[in-house]
Amino acid sequence: MTYKSALKILLVAAATLGWLTGLARADTIEDIKKKGTLVVGVKADYPPYGMRDPSGEIVGMEVDMAKDVAQRLGVKLQLEPVVASNRMQFLQQGKTDLMIATMSVNDERKKAVGIVEPYYYAGGVALLAAKSAKIKTGADLKGKPVCAIQGAFYNNEISSKMTGQDLIAFKGVPENEQALQNGQCVGFAYDDVLLIYTKKANADKWKDFEVVQLDIAPLPWGIAVKSEDKDTPWGKFMSDIVTDWHKKGTLVALEKKWLGENTQWLIDANAKAK
Q1: Cβ neighbours of residue 212 under 8 Å, at least 6 residues apart?
Q2: At a CB cut-off of 8 Å and minimum separation 6, what does 59 contact?
Q3: What pLDDT was estimated at residue 70?
Q4: What percent of the chain has pLDDT over 70?
């Protein structure tokens, strides 16, 4: 066998394998329909997107989104609780068909899973501030102590552009909240929606505090499928659904239902989609 003949056989075999692989990937929707169940990775500890109600059932904005996808497919929904450390792995390993779990988008995650576009949400940064401190914008934080979560992506920007000094960083939310209540800092910098939810859910505890939005660009959140599914009918199906949610105001309505108000990013995304 000549070199050219062998090379031709290898190329044909590779093309055939690629076609068969593509065919298998294109059948993800049919596989889900065949088993009759859509398995979605969601948070169970991140209100109001995914949390457990008094009966132990997982509820929240992203859970309602998952229910809508299952309904459109005509299958049952199985919720798989995930956390930040395993949500992508569960998808890669086939433990879930879809992931809707408060995942912000970055280049590294785009390489690991198939993040669907358009993005469905975005997380901004705000400050739960003592009303007595009279904080209205980030500029009012100059020289003042601010509490924050250790390692948060926005810490450096707050420190360098707003406070002009190091933040008082704790590992968890409870420690930051306690420090704020004790007067160790004028405000606690955290995800804007969670602070809004915290204040509403514990109105008496936080009656002397207000949520102040900080001028830090929101990070978009994305729904994800397996990397190999992104450019197949399954990935396109999910892309079309997110587009439809934006156009019809579904996400705006769900956010209003679970948060009690709407974030500017989602309002703008809804207006742009119309």
Answers
A1: 126, 127, 129, 135, 136, 137, 187
A2: 50, 51, 52, 53
A3: 98
A4: 91
Compute the distance between CA of residue 58 and CA of residue 42 in angstroms, rounded to an integer: 9
- For the chain, the domains span 9-122+219-273, 125-213
pLDDT band of 144, cuts 50, 70, 90: very high
How is domain 125-213 classified at the CATH fold level?
D-Maltodextrin-Binding Protein; domain 2 (3.40.190)
Q: Locate tokens 């056989």: which residue?
A: 9
Pairing of strands 219-221, 121-123: antiparallel
- Bridging pattern class, strands 37-43 and 98-99: parallel
Tens-place pLDDT, residues 28-48: 999 999 999 999 999 998 899
- List the CATH code of the domain at 9-122+219-273: 3.40.190.10
CA distance 81 to 84: 11
CA–CA distance, 204 with 240 (Å, rounded to integer): 42
Q: Letter for the amino acid at 54?
A: P
Do the domains 125-213 and 9-122+219-273 match in fold?
A: yes
- Phi, psi dihedral angles at 19 (to 5 degrees): -65, -40
Task: Write the DSSP string, 157-182.
Answer: HHIIIIISS--EEESSHHHHHHHHHT
Provide CB contacts within 8 A for 150, sequence distance 6+: 169, 170, 171
* Residues whose CB falls within 8 Å of the CB of residue 207, separated by 6 or more in sequence, listed in order: none
Q: Are 90 and 80 in contact (CB under 8 A)?
A: yes
Pairing of strands 45-46, 50-52: antiparallel
Reported pTM = 0.79
pLDDT of 211 over the 70 cut: yes
